[in-house]
């Protein structure tokens, strides 16, 4: 769907009766599920599958997109923006970025980036995070790692867990010896911020930081504590990390 088609779709939605809009309770549940999945660090494929379980009929999927389009239209024609409407833009962008496996909606990465960017420019941390991902992976826009990490940083300042994790990973990978110690400290602080918000991989990395003396003093008790917090979601990675504490010569895999 190009921009003109999107406007046409929106106008069609506006012309529909109220019963075509998605029930507010269902919309609230879908959004809560969607943003919780992001905070926990689920991969996009897993998030899409989670959404599809809620959108188990064509009617519900159509009503959802109609409602999100209406909210986006209301936002564009208003001088003020609510947090809820900005979140609607992010969810709408995700739907068009990933599409649905049942082909109810096809992918349109350029339209997805546009929705993310509108939300990001209005100050939404999830929009900023997804714009960063778009720049990093070339989704609807040319790859630009500098811009990607600028958006991750802006989002992380709002304590967005996914952005904190991404930005921490960036600091963690710095290989310049004279910068490594300071970057490891920054990475650790970002990981623990995301971990406290429930991000699974951030919990694991926080545990590894305590184990490996990355950006913090070595503390085996804290390492085990954080690793166990992530065990239900990533048991194989956690088991490997826990084995390393007792068998330190084993290779580290994460």
TrEMBL record:
<dbReference type="Pfam" id="PF08238">
    <property type="entry name" value="Sel1"/>
</dbReference>
<dbReference type="InterPro" id="IPR052748">
    <property type="entry name" value="ISR_Activator"/>
</dbReference>
<protein>
    <submittedName>
        <fullName>2612_t:CDS:1</fullName>
    </submittedName>
</protein>
<dbReference type="InterPro" id="IPR006597">
    <property type="entry name" value="Sel1-like"/>
</dbReference>
<dbReference type="InterPro" id="IPR011990">
    <property type="entry name" value="TPR-like_helical_dom_sf"/>
</dbReference>
């Amino acid at each position: 769907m190009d921009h003109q088609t999107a406007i046409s779709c929106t106008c069609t939605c506006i012309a529909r009766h109220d019963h075509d809009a998605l029930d507010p309770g269902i919309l609230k549940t879908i959004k809560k599920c969607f943003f919780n999945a992001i905070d926990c660090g689920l991969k996009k494929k897993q998030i899409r599958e989670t959404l599809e379980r809620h959108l188990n009929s064509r009617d519900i999927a159509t009503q959802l997109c109609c409602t999100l389009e209406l909210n986006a239209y209301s936002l564009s024609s208003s001088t003020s923006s609510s947090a809820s409407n900005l979140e609607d833009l992010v969810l709408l962008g995700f739907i068009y970025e990933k599409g649905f496996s049942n082909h109810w909606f096809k992918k349109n990465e350029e339209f997805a980036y546009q929705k993310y960017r509108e939300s990001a420019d209005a100050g939404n941390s999830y929009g900023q995070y997804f714009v960063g991902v778009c720049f990093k992976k070339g989704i609807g826009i040319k790859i630009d790692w500098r811009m990607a990490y600028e958006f991750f940083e802006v989002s992380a300042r709002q304590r967005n867990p996914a952005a904190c994790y991404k930005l921490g990973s960036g600091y963690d990978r710095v290989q310049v010896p004279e910068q490594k110690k300071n970057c490891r400290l920054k990475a650790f602080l970002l990981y623990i911020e995301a971990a406290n918000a429930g991000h699974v991989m951030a919990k694991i990395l926080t545990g590894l930081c305590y184990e490996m003396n990355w950006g913090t003093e070595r503390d085996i008790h804290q390492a085990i504590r954080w690793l166990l917090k992530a065990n239900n979601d990533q048991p194989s990675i956690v088991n490997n990390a826990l084995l390393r504490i007792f068998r330190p010569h084993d290779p580290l895999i994460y």
